Amino acid sequence: MSTVSSAVTDFIHLFYPHVCAGCSSDIITINQELCLRCVSQLPSTNFFEQRGNPVEKNFYGRLNIVNAASGYFFTKYSLIEALVYELKYKGNKAVGLEMGKRLGTLLLSSPYDEVDLIVPLPLNARRLKKRGYNQATILAEGIATVWDKPVVTDAVIRNVNTETQTHKGRVTRWENMDGVFAVAKPSLLQDKHILLVDDVVTTGASLEACGAEILKVPGTKLSIATLAYTI
Ligand SMILES: [Zn+2]
């Protein structure tokens, strides 16, 4: 960078502070949301290259999936927790796009290439209204910037007046998830291999319920990718 443009960058920085979404350091390149130190500390799972990884195993016997993986480990008070918090509660869409891009790069070099389209897990209407966007859609859009697959947001819907119960056991939760998701436009999904995307997989109850609805459409195959995986 020339001295002049560097001076301009410094000047802009003074009035529009651009800090790392992970550690708030200001040693960061314009158009990037993470500093190099945070990038080097991202807790990669390497699950995309691993058949029978813990995310896939989580769905064994519950959902007929082709592949499933998460990019990073999610632990309490970690960098990934901070980034997901930025995306979900601080309106930081840029960090979601960047992390989606990183997920897309992992998908590019994985056995996921036969996927036809990306479907973000729909968010319930109340949260969507409050947040203004679905964080899974932001991640999906980030993925699509590096991995050339269409993002389809209107084929699957989350029904109004249904809430996920997260304080109960898996069996109860499954019962409560019944009817939460529905396929609104089956013709968009028919005979396609769908990649269902979400931010964090914990029990996988929502992905399972949504995936089960998708698989009711004739000829569909299902894979799952999430940004993070709760240990
Ligand atoms: Zn940082």
Number of domains: 2
Query: Which fold name corresponds to the CATH topology of the largest domain?
Result: Rossmann fold
Query: Which structural category fits the helices and strands?
Result: alpha/beta
The residue fraction in helices comes out at: 25-40%
Instruction: Identify low-pLDDT runs.
Output: none
Q: How would you sum up the major sheet?
A: 4 strands, parallel
What's the mean pLDDT score?
A: 89
Spell out the helices and strands N to C. Answer: HHHEHHEHHEHEHEHE
Count, helices: 10
Straight-line N-to-C gap:
42 Å
Our Rg estimate from Cα atoms comes to 19 Å
CATH class (first level) name of the largest domain: Alpha Beta
The small molecules bound here are: zinc ion
Structure description:
The chain contains 10 helices and 6 strands. It folds into 2 domains: 1-40, no CATH class; 42-230, Rossmann fold (3-Layer(aba) Sandwich), CATH 3.40.50.2020. Helix 4 (79-89) crosses helix 5 (93-108) and helix 5 packs across helix 7. Strands 1-6-5-2 form a 4-stranded parallel sheet, with helices on both faces. A two-stranded antiparallel ribbon has the order 3-4. The longest helix has 16 residues, at 93-108. Helix content is 40%, strand content 16%. By secondary structure, the chain is α/β, with parallel strands linked by helices. The structure holds zinc ion.
